[in-house]
Amino acid sequence: MPTDSNYTPALSPASDDVDLDYAEDQDEDDRPGPSRRRAGAKGGGKGQNGAAGGGKGEDGRQAWEGMYKRSWDVVQEDEGGGLQAAVDSLIARGRRKRALMSEAPLRRSIIRHMFIILDLSDSMRDKDFRPNRFELTLQYLRSYVVEWFDQNPLGQVGIILMRDRLSEVLVPMGGNPQEILATLADKRKLEPSGEPSLQNGLVMARGGMSHLPSTSSLEALVIFSSISTSDPDGPTSIHQVLTDLVQARLRTTIISLSGEIKICRQICERTGGRFGVAIDEEHLRELLWETIPPPAQTLAPSATMGVRNALAAGGRAGGRPGGAGRPPPAGDLMVMGFPVRLPQGGETLCACHGLLKKGGYLCPRCGSKLCDVPTDCEVCGLMVVSSPHLARSFWFLFPVANYATLPLEIASDPSHELAPTCFGCDRDFPDLSDIGINLGVASQAEGVSPTGRYRCVKCANDFCGDCDLYIHDTLHTCPGCSQ
Predict the structure, then answer these.
(1) Does residue 177 sit in the same domain as residue 230?
(2) How far is 31 from 22, CA to CA, in rounded Å?
(3) 59, 80, 267, 415: most buried by Cβ count inside 10 Å?
(4) CA-to-CA distance for 424 and 95, rounded, in angstroms?
């Protein structure tokens, strides 16, 4: 019985070379990382200077490698051969960056209303952010909500979801952070699916703020994961929605997790917001935390010239140049009410949710029961706040001046007497003999003190780095100046 033999076709030398090149290219494509294939294999060189040789520059690196900073190149060992000094200095550089804020007097809105528009499309399952985009975004949003309400006690936040080409309100506009955190903890309502519709999300956010007064700051924070938007077909396009956002003064900030999108950048530029593309996990957190401080309001110079001096003078002489005895400039007055807190007794019907709940607050105008403050009364429309919230809202209007860094030359001068301990926490400052010139880092960052001392320009007291951040981020009052 004859046996089957493998068929081996006759190959010409030319075809043999083609198959070998194809096999080599296929193996090259299967390997992880950038391809090392020669530029001539793709159709010849594009120049004689080697610019087309795999996209490499003059230093021999790939073109995409030039965008990233090699942070390990600036780290140097200390005298003992360790890297602890370098690590401490890099951490201090990152923490100090947030404390360096502009000291220019700006008009900021202390009453903010923000809708967080979250993209829950299938692209949120991608794992370029660890563990994935969905888990990381929820983790950051929980911390973001707590920090946002801590620095904006009179603000209100709502959450809108975009998935399956639709938008839905997950959390209505309110001032209770615990309700938002409880909703974000339930992942059964937050399953990503379908494609997002940026137009529907912005239209719903604008509609949810249409009843708010012009004295409050209307904002929308969009966390966009997809590279496209599936908007509905109809007479209204996203460009018309953009025009409506500009007329409604809805400041829109978009953070993209995939890449830059033209329509997203146009929306941010025309509405006065910010647009950013998150490179990694830490960069995403920085982009989110940049939206926590109240945005500056833009006014004409004639309306803001000498306002603080006139208000400080209280209408007395010398309040404004050449204005002897003139009254201070007129400002926009807002009606607020301070509620009466109810005891934790029997359950009564609230006017905001229509449910039986214990405790709550009574509106001082109409007497309706409210669950939490700050909020707007559902019956009479009065803004109900508490006095501690109102006092904390002035932090960003009158911030603590930035502390100056103490150079090594001044600290080592014998004519200057230095305090041995921090004025705030009474911790001992490091000895000057133990401090290196660069603390293990090749270039000292701007705003980071090489001696570990930060001095107040008013009271001339020295503080450590931890106290400096605590005073500017949490306390908002200089202990030395208050005494």
Answers:
(1) yes
(2) 15
(3) 267
(4) 18
